[in-house]
Amino acid sequence: MKIKDIIFNNFNLKVLALFIALLTWILITGKERTYLEETIDVNVEYINVSKNIDVRDINPEKVRIKVKGTSNEMKKISPKDFKLKIDLRGTNESVKLNKFTKDYLEYPENINIVSVYPQWIEITIEEFSIKEVPIKVKYTGMFKKGIRLIKRSIKPEKIRIYGYKPQIKNIDVVYATESIDLSKIDKTTTIKLSLKKREEILKFKDSDEVEVTIVVENRNVKNRRK
Length: 226
What we know:
The protein is of the alpha+beta class. It has two domains: 35-127, Beta Complex (RNA Polymerase Alpha Subunit, Chain A, domain 2); 137-220, YbbR-like domain (RNA Polymerase Alpha Subunit, Chain A, domain 2), CATH 2.170.120.40. Helix content is 20%, strand content 46%. The chain has five helices and 16 strands. The protein has helices at residues 3-8, 11-32, 71-76, 165-168, 219-225, and strands at residues 35-47, 53-59, 62-70, 83-87, 95-100, 105-106, 112-117, 120-136, 139-140, 147-155, 158-164, 174-175, 180-181, 189-194, 203-204, 209-218. The strands form four sheets. Strands 2, 5, 8, 11, 12 and 15 form a six-stranded mixed β-sheet that branches. It has a five-stranded mixed β-sheet with strand order 6-4-1-3-7. It is rod-shaped. The model has no long low-confidence stretch (mean pLDDT 86).
């Protein structure tokens, strides 16, 4: 068979087949090159936090990003593929940080970031601290006639308080929640009192009570014995 006969034998069918193949190729390649955009909300996370610090505030808690990619690539992704983790390694004191959002954004390859909002993340960090301060007890009234104070002791005399360093640095004393009325004491007495927990104090490290011992001499009893 001649080459001419081979080419022109069923020519119309061959042209149709070629047209269909070409059209299919155009549709497939065109679809692959079609770009899509999507808006995704990403939670802001932080890692490597030191034991002595607390992340008091992070603003915002979510970041909105617009991403772009081919239709095929966009089909493969989900919001779980996008993460925003801020590394706080080495941060161990009270400070306010401003982090550039895009520096901490993790996302799949072949995906382009069109926009990020907001572009900055503000993180407020507070350092925990322990401070030892004296305990004070308030007294009211006066001993009755014939009652003489021998000794007064407080146990413990000091207490360790725990809280954010900037907030407790100016606390120099902790008071008992109640006062002791001296007019009601006519013999050696030991009284337990709770400690007043100010808002700045997160907790007392050792105990939240103080024990007050008041040793007195009651001359009235002696006089009655005579």
